[in-house]
């Protein structure tokens, strides 16, 4: 049974605040270990990568090589069954088409004073893409992280993926090839992040590192931040389903479980105005759990972090939605368009009864890398914007300098910065 | 004397790489101190703020109040001389006009399959703006940080500024009022960052914290990152001037010194194709230093981190520019437009001989908060985009679900996620 809250109860406000504050992850302090690994990779380069990979992944890189060869990628493509390969290509085409619309355009204009102002967007030259090994090695995530980089025009998209005991999901290599990844190395953990940030003889450094990973990878990304850019640190996934009683309880239960099966720390929340429907969904969750291959994970997530919130009406629910700031928000109600303008904080919104969140995980076209842990209050999902940067340009002639100069000089003097004032004054006719 | 490098010398490549790797800041490990302060503010709220402010700023907040009142702000406005106030308003109007062009627009379209896809941009609800006290308390920085928030539509712009011994620059309050700051508190350091992130009885929490600060502030921002968003961690400022021999050596020397006077860790670099001009600029720097109020700071910066690089021509200089990825780049050459397309990595470009970087510090209209320490390779200056976030929307009907569903199911199954597959399949007619 998930947590049950009722908006009408006197203790609701405190209970809801407690739900918001719920910690779903045990934070591991691995900073010292990670820092030692990074220093070692900086000092010894490839030799350190070989040592750590032997130790942590039980793999001899001197035998296999650090890089995954074009032949290995070819061979992997051959191992993927036709239907899955087609689905990957279909997803890639849709993701690419959508992200192409995100490319920002340069802007340059001359203002009434004659000052030229502009923004130039350029792609980051080289980006590292961390792909986890094992259970969380998802080809869909390779597409979601690599395609916006490809669209942005990043020249080097460098993937690292750990291969514990030499094992590697051929689908991950297939996705990488479809998404235009330029180099792939069979390394993981903090050592892979260090190699991407500082480079080794084999791996040239990148300017930014993206992609999910475990506590060691997250700590390593934080530590190299500054030397390189990083994306957000992803937490466990969550869904918030807003549903009225006219839905199929089975559909909504399936959506809640789709989130729950990701991770025991995932969170699925249902907000409904219908107590009977809430009961029906809870029953459907229990029933569907019985036939789920990842029942243990999904069951734990639902039991520990799942919640059902009963509200008198959906308009009063929207402030709760905004405080939760969910990664994924489904609006499965008769008139979702009436609620849409009231949503302020959410990573992605799935509108109507026929838009399960899972479509967005794979083939909707939008990105599935979205802000978790309430960070949709201040951040956005992954997009082409994460792979470009803006340079501002400013252009004055003599006339414009005469017009703007006196104010600049006044402010420089007020700030006690004489050389600032001089740099303007020396160019003026006075 | 600054460092002198010549592109034609055999040792140039190594010397240039060493210049790139030069560390200009002593990194202080203040993490434990900061973490204790944050915990204390979380636990004791206002009482902790009062204690730390008494200790670090020698100020009794129980006497003054934590908040700065409207009357105090009025009084500060009265203390600012007319010319400076007019200059602040002039700067504000120009910065505002430029940033209004940065507001992203929502996008919604229906693709050929009938799937609705879109991006909705909304402002962050509440933002904290850290303003340093003492020497680095610049009203121009208040404008640069607050105006994009104002343009974005942020409802609460909350400023914190330490007032050591009760002292506060009235210009900072004037700038805050002009830029629409909604609340101001006389606190600083890690305790102010903690108050903004977690809230106290007096201060409601914000969703993102921006603005420069010392090592304690920077460490605190890193530690609260995740609970709130943060902007980039600013390092000491730098300028790269690309100038031919047709410039006035005095103008270019003034530009180099304007950067150098900020901070002993600031860096000013000149790239020129004219050895005689290089000598003239060095002489002009020495001469101008004699009449500069901040000569000690500027002289130390120039001596320790300044550099003059002689190149055979400017086209060969552009790869050096891109590796340096300067915060500020001046192109003081006959035909800057020929070089512009070759610049990939720079925070801001100042085009032509009549656009000293200082204009951009105050009244150009573009933002002066720019990526330092080579981070222009992967990041951008502050803009309206830093105060908004994007929510993606996806909308399918039954037909679209039938079209996209099979690929989603195939990928979910390939990833071993049964509940994902079910959430789609259960909605399909099969």
From TrEMBL, chains A, B:
The family database entries (InterPro entries) matched by this protein are listed as: Ald_DH/histidinol_DH, Histidinol_DH_CS, Histidinol_DH_monofunct, Hstdl_DH
Keyword list (alphabetical) reads: Amino-acid biosynthesis, Histidine biosynthesis, Metal-binding, NAD, Oxidoreductase, Zinc
Sites where the protein binds NAD(+): 130, 191, 214
Which biological process terms from the Gene Ontology are attached to this UniProt entry? Answer: L-histidine biosynthetic process
Question: What does the entry list as the binding residues for Zn(2+)?
Answer: 259, 262, 361, 420
Mind telling me which GO cellular component terms the entry cites?
cytosol
GO molecular function per UniProt: histidinol dehydrogenase activity; NAD binding; zinc ion binding
Metabolic or biological pathway, per its Swiss-Prot or TrEMBL entry: Amino-acid biosynthesis; L-histidine biosynthesis; L-histidine from 5-phospho-alpha-D-ribose 1-diphosphate: step 9/9
Q: How is the cofactor bound?
A: Binds 1 zinc ion per subunit.
Cross-referenced CDD domains: Histidinol_dh
EC number in record: 1.1.1.23
Q: Provide the binding site for substrate.
A: 237, 259, 262, 328, 361, 415, 420
Cofactors per UniProt?
Zn(2+)
| Catalytic residue positions | 327 (proton acceptor), 328 (proton acceptor)
- Nucleus: present as a keyword of the record? no
**Reactions that this protein is recorded to catalyse:** L-histidinol + 2 NAD(+) + H2O = L-histidine + 2 NADH + 3 H(+)
Q: Which Pfam families match?
A: Histidinol_dh (PF00815)
The record's section on HAMAP family has: HisD (MF_01024)
- Protein family per UniProt: Belongs to the histidinol dehydrogenase family.
Role description? Catalyzes the sequential NAD-dependent oxidations of L-histidinol to L-histidinaldehyde and then to L-histidine.
Instruction: Spell out the protein name for this chain.
Output: Histidinol dehydrogenase
Origin organism is Hoeflea prorocentri
């Amino acid at each position: 049974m998930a947590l049950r809250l009722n908006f009408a109860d006197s203790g609701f406000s405190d209970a809801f605040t407690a739900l918001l504050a719920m910690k779903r992850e045990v934070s591991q302090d691995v900073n010292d270990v990670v820092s030692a690994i990074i220093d070692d990779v900086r000092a010894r380069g490839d030799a350190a990568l070989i040592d750590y990979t032997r130790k942590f992944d039980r793999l001899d890189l001197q035998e296999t090589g650090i890089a995954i060869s074009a032949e290995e990628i070819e061979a992997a493509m051959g191992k993927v069954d036709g239907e899955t390969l087609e689905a990957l290509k279909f997803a890639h085409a849709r993701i690419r088409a959508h992200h192409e619309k995100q490319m920002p355009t340069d802007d340059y204009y001359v203002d009434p004073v004659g000052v030229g102002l502009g923004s130039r967007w350029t792609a980051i030259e080289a980006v590292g893409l961390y792909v986890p090994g094992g259970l969380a090695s998802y080809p869909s995530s390779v597409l979601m992280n690599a395609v916006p980089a490809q669209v942005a025009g990043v020249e080097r998209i460098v993937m690292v993926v750990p291969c514990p005991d030499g094992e590697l999901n051929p689908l991950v290599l297939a996705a990488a090839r479809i998404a235009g990844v330029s180099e792939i190395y069979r390394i993981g953990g903090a050592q892979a992040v260090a190699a991407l940030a500082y480079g080794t003889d084999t791996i040239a450094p990148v300017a930014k590192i993206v992609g999910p990973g475990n506590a060691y990878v997250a700590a390593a990304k934080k530590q190299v931040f500054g030397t390189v850019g990083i994306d957000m640190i992803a937490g466990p996934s969550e869904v918030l389903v807003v549903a009225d009683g006219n839905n199929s309880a089975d559909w909504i239960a399936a959506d809640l479980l789709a989130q729950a099966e990701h991770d025991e720390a995932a969170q699925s929340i249902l907000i409904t105005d219908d107590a009977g429907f809430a009961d029906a969904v809870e029953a459907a969750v229990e029933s569907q759990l019985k036939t789920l291959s990842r029942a243990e994970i999904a069951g734990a997530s639902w039991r520990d972090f799942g919640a059902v919130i009963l509200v008198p009406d959906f308009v009063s629910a929207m402030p709760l939605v905004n405080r939760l700031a969910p990664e994924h928000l489904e609006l499965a109600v008769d008139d979702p368009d009436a609620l849409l303008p009231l949503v302020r904080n959410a990573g992605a919104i799935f509108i109507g009864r026929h838009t399960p969140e899972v479509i967005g995980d794979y083939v909707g076209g939008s990105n599935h890398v979205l802000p978790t842990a309430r960070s949709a209050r201040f951040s956005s999902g992954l997009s082409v914007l994460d792979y470009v940067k803006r340079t501002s340009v400013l252009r004055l002639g003599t006339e414009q300098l005469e017009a703007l100069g006196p104010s600049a000089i006044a402010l420089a003097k007020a700030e006690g910065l004489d050389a600032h004032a001089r740099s303007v004054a020396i160019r003026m006719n006075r």
